[in-house]
Structures are given as structure tokens and as C-alpha cells.
Write a structure and sequence with these properties.
55% of the residues lie in helices and 7% in strands. It is an alpha+beta fold. It has three domains: 65 residues, no CATH class; 142 residues, Beta Polymerase, domain 2; 62 residues, no CATH class. The strands form two sheets. Strands 1-2-5-4-3 form a five-stranded mixed β-sheet. Strands 6-7 form a two-stranded antiparallel sheet. Helix 11 crosses helix 13. The two termini are 40 Å apart.
């Protein structure tokens, strides 16, 4: 195995050695799955953290498939427990999608809801924490009004100045899982036309009692790789199982030229190439080598490497400012470099909910002091 090349500590979003063992337990088709499961239990004591819990139904199913039995704690097993939860959350998603359609809004399903029904052998094998829906930016406010009419409320208030730059907003309604309404598929790419191709390539998604829509396999692959390698206190290591199963099950429906073109246009070839190489080398996923070579050619430059390291690491003020700049550069790629420098303080002021850009230096200093104080 070439894991040493890729493995980092839990201080980044990159899968650890224990994560990779659990992923192999859930994805490898033979006795290696059991060996990986034993290694995972030896390395963790059989105790799953928040990130690992989401992979246990897949691991249990695969180990049962390989040998017909698995020694996993708890009765009923992780698979049976997740099966019931998955059915309830899918029913909630179908209900809200039907209600939105009646209100004239037809979004695209993202992440768990779509991936679990398209690429996993059974929806229960891919946990769904919330409902993720994508609408076009110009339809976001209409979709938001429709949700609020249906009883959904924003989880947190966002400054009005920030709304134009956000890639999504979380909503809650009693008795339902959280719903994330996205105006953009990726927070790294929030220009008005960033996701136009995703809607043009949209495909059907069969849900119980409803024919919905979702993004194409190539767009799913880009989305799970880039989104999954973003820092979180509970890293979304299931991105690697998502990517592997898309690659294994999409077949000719996966258009590699679309994948490369989207990564190039969004300047996201670097994280995508890293992700694809890892699932190829560590999980045996079938990756198109010419496409990977093309992505490598589009991954050169120190800025892309620094951005990648900043994305997968815990936040800091300096790294945060750099990532804001990277996001702003993509959002305003129509502007000249000089114009972007001129507009950037105003962008930060809007993101931070400030009354004017003149407050940006003072706010940055306060944020820096708070971080330093927190480390003391």
C-alpha cells in the first residue's frame, strides 16, 4: 500500500490510516476487507468517532457480503439502524421536494439524498445527515420564500450583505432533518454562472413516489471530492466512499471530459487530482489515466498547493484571508487583478457583516487577537 504518501493526522480533512482501513473494510470485494476491519479495530479499539460512524453501515454490509457474517457491536446492527433512519429522512425529503414543486420550485438534489439512491447498493449504506438542494442563484429567494411558507426557518441569521456571497443557507422545521438550500454547489465557486452546466446536464433521480432531478455523475464526482476535502471538526471522510462508488458504478455515464472541463473552469484541478489519485491507489477505484494526467497539468503553481493545504487544515486568520481571496477571485473572475484588489476589502466587509470596508482592518485585528487568546 502507498498510504504513507497520503496519510495525515486528524488535524486535517485528509483520511488517516484508521480512516483508510475502515474505508477498505467497506469497499474492498474480498478477504482484504476483513483484514482492514481488524486493523481498524486494533488502531481504534473498535470505538468510532463522529466521522467514522457514518461508514459503519457500509462496512457492516460489505463484511457480511464478503463472508456472510461480521462481528460488529450492537443489536440491531448499524445497517438495520441506518435503514430505518434512511427511510424516514428520504420520506421527509420527498415531501419537501413535492411541496416545492407545487410552489413552482424544482431544485436539484445533492449529496446524501442523491448519492445514496444512485450509486450505493442500498440507500441505507450512505448516511444522510440533512437534505441538500441546489437552485439557480436567481431562484434562491423564491425558493427561500417557499420554504418559509411551508414552515421552514433559517437556522442562523445571516447579514443581508453576506447573502449574495453565500453558497447556501440552512433551514430547520420541527420533525424534519435540517435542510440546506444552496445557491451554489460549492462555496469555492459562487459566481452567478458557476453552476449553469450542472443544470444543463441534470439527470433524473428516482425516489419513493417522486421523480426528482440531480446532477450528472461527473458533477457528483467533482462535488464530493472538493467538498469532502474541506476542513470540518468532523471530517467528511465518506467522500472517499462516495467517489469510489461513483467511479465503480457510473460506467459510461461518467463523462471524463466534463469532469476535466469543470475542474479547469473552476480552477479546482489540484484537489480533484489529489482525491482521484488517493481513491485509485488506496481503494482500487477505476480512474481514467488520461483525465488524471490532464488534471495534473492544470494543478501546477504554488498558489494552488497553498490553497489546498489551507482548505484541509483547521481555520486560522491568515489562511482564512487567503481563502477569502481565492473565493473572491473565482467569484469575480471577470474583473482585472487590479480591480479585484480594489474590491476585496468591500467583499470582506460584506462577508463579515460590517457597515463599511473601513472597519475591515480593525475587525481582522480583533479576530487575530481572539484566536491568539484562545491558544494561550
Amino acid at each position: 500500500m502507498s498510504g504513507a504518501k497520503y496519510i495525515a493526522s486528524r488535524h486535517t480533512a485528509w483520511p488517516t490510516n484508521d480512516d483508510l482501513n475502515l474505508l477498505r473494510a467497506g469497499l474492498l470485494p474480498d478477504a482484504r476487507a476483513h483484514a482492514s476491519w481488524d486493523c481498524w479495530r486494533a488502531g481504534t479499539g473498535g470505538v468510532a468517532d463522529t466521522a467514522s460512524l457514518r461508514l459503519l453501515p457500509l462496512a457492516e454490509w460489505n463484511l457480511r457480503r464478503v463472508s456472510g457474517a461480521v462481528s460488529a457491536p450492537g443489536e440491531p446492527g448499524f445497517l438495520e439502524t441506518e435503514w430505518l433512519r434512511s427511510e424516514r429522512r428520504t420520506a421527509s425529503a420527498v415531501s419537501v421536494l413535492r411541496q416545492l414543486e407545487e410552489a413552482g420550485v424544482r431544485p436539484l438534489a445533492l449529496k446524501g439524498l442523491a448519492l445514496s439512491h444512485l450509486f450505493y447498493p442500498h440507500p441505507a449504506l450512505r448516511t444522510m445527515g440533512d437534505i441538500d438542494l441546489l437552485v439557480q442563484p436567481e431562484e434562491f429567494h423564491r425558493a427561500r420564500r417557499a420554504l418559509e411558507t411551508l414552515g421552514w426557518r433559517p437556522v442562523a441569521a445571516e447579514p443581508a450583505s453576506r447573502m449574495g456571497h453565500l453558497h447556501g443557507l440552512a433551514f430547520a422545521r420541527r420533525g424534519d432533518p435540517e435542510l440546506d438550500l444552496h445557491a451554489h454547489a460549492l462555496l469555492e465557486c459562487c459566481s452567478p454562472d458557476a453552476d449553469r452546466g450542472l443544470f444543463e446536464r441534470a439527470v433524473s433521480l428516482e425516489l419513493p413516489g417522486l421523480l426528482a432531478r440531480t446532477i450528472s455523475p461527473a458533477d457528483h464526482l467533482l462535488h464530493v471530492c472538493v467538498h469532502g476535502l474541506r476542513w470540518s471538526s468532523a471530517p467528511a471522510i465518506h467522500w472517499a466512499s462516495d467517489a469510489t462508488l461513483i467511479l465503480q458504478r457510473a460506467g459510461k455515464q461518467l463523462d471524463w471530459s466534463v469532469l476535466v472541463a469543470e475542474a479547469r473552469n473552476r480552477d479546482l484541478a489540484f484537489p480533484l487530482a489529489r482525491a482521484l489519485r488517493m481513491v485509485r491507489d488506496e481503494l482500487g477505484a477505476p480512474v481514467d489515466e488520461p483525465a488524471l494526467s490532464e488534471l495534473d497539468c492544470r494543478s501546477r503553481g504554488w498558489r494552488r498547493k497553498i490553497e489546498f493545504q489551507a482548505r484541509i487544515a483547521p481555520p486560522s486568520l491568515l489562511a482564512g484571508l487567503f481563502l477569502h481571496w481565492c473565493d473572491f477571485k473565482r467569484e469575480r473572475r471577470d474583473a482585472s487583478p487590479l480591480m479585484r484588489l480594489f474590491l476585496f476589502p468591500g467583499y470582506l466587509g460584506e462577508m463579515w457583516g460590517l457597515a463599511g470596508s473601513w472597519k475591515v482592518p480593525l475587525t481582522a485585528a480583533k479576530k487575530s487577537y481572539a484566536r491568539l487568546k484562545g491558544r494561550a
